[in-house]
Design brief:
Number of domains: 2
Number of helices: 5
Mean pLDDT: 95
Radius of gyration: 19 Å
Helix content: 10-25%
Shape: globular
Largest sheet: 10 strands, mixed
Distance between the termini: 22 Å
Keywords: Isomerase, tRNA processing
CATH topology of the largest domain: Alpha-Beta Plaits
Strand content: 25-35%
InterPro entries: PsdUridine_synth_cat_dom_sf (IPR020103), PsdUridine_synth_TruA (IPR001406), PsdUridine_synth_TruA_a/b_dom (IPR020097), PsdUridine_synth_TruA_C (IPR020095), TruA/RsuA/RluB/E/F_N (IPR020094)
Organism: Paenibacillus chitinolyticus
Binding site for substrate: 110
Enzyme class: isomerase
Length: 256
């Protein structure tokens, strides 16, 4: 048997999340169907993480074992001809049988995009949350400092979270201010992109962090409250869950 690793990107707008569900229409369903069409095998793929309905991925990593002798470099082109246009295989390689897309991952990065310009961007509307009200970026940056390191993130995960441990490590978190590509005037601010790099993330963790940061940016909470929310270990203390379509699995890193 061979272990094939593939990095895929997808627009999650039309899907009920990544992981297979009883009612179908998930990214995993389409990937496994394409693999079956190509190799004739029914495989169960493993992913680096589960994205929710409406969430996108720039670089999701999957792996599966196969008896097929198709060279690794041919998998992407062959799969892409059998996948919907909003799911794309980017690169593939053969890895040791011990490799596991989730358990072998060392660091994951998610991004969340907020459009702050007054007018929506019709071309990027699926990938950014439109929030035309002013946000205090400096205050949000100050608040981000509180989540760096290893903490219990019970305040920043859904009450539906089933993970036994709520402890995660955030290695880095930052905000990038970007210009409005739709503005007729050059260099006009119009977009904020949040990045979170960590050992792993709990259910809805990034979206709740962003929802809380938005309240801080609006002046509804002081930046100093972020640390108190974290210490409280109570979901009710944090802000709302930000909308799904602004979130993207950005990158997954492995030891090699």
């Amino acid at each position: 048997m061979r272990n094939i690793r593939i990095t895929v990107s997808y627009d999650g707008t039309s899907y009920s999340g990544f992981q297979t569900q009883p009612h179908g229409n998930t990214v995993q369903d389409y990937l496994e169907r394409a693999i079956r069409m190509l190799s004739g095998e029914t495989v169960k793929i493993t992913s680096s993480g589960r994205t929710d309905a409406g969430v996108h991925a720039r670089a999701q990593v999957i792996n599966f074992t196969t008896a097929s002798q198709i060279p690794a470099e041919r998998w992407c082109l062959a799969l892409n001809s059998r996948l919907p246009k909003d799911i794309v295989a980017l690169r593939a390689d053969e890895v040791p049988l011990s490799f596991h897309a989730r358990k072998s991952a060392k660091r994951k990065t998610y991004s969340y995009t907020i459009r702050t310009a007054r007018i929506p961007d019709t071309f990027q509307r699926r990938y950014q949350f439109h929030h035309p009200n002013p946000l205090d970026v400096d205050a949000m940056r100050d608040a981000l400092a509180a989540i760096l390191g290893t903490h219990d993130f019970s305040s920043f995960c859904s009450v539906k979270t089933v993970a036994e441990s709520r402890i995660r490590t955030i290695y880095d978190a930052w905000i990038v201010e970007e210009t409005d590509q739709m503005s007729v005037e050059p260099n006009q601010p119009g977009q904020l992109r949040f990045y979170f790099t960590g050992s792993g993330f709990l259910y809805n963790m990034v979206r709740i962090l962003v929802g809380t940061l938005i309240q801080i940016g609006e002046g509804k909470r002081p930046a100093e409250e972020m640390a108190a929310i974290l210490r409280g270990r109570n979901r009710a203390l944090a802000g709302p869950t930000a909308e799904a379509h602004g979130l993207m699995l950005w990158n997954v890193e492995y030891a090699e």
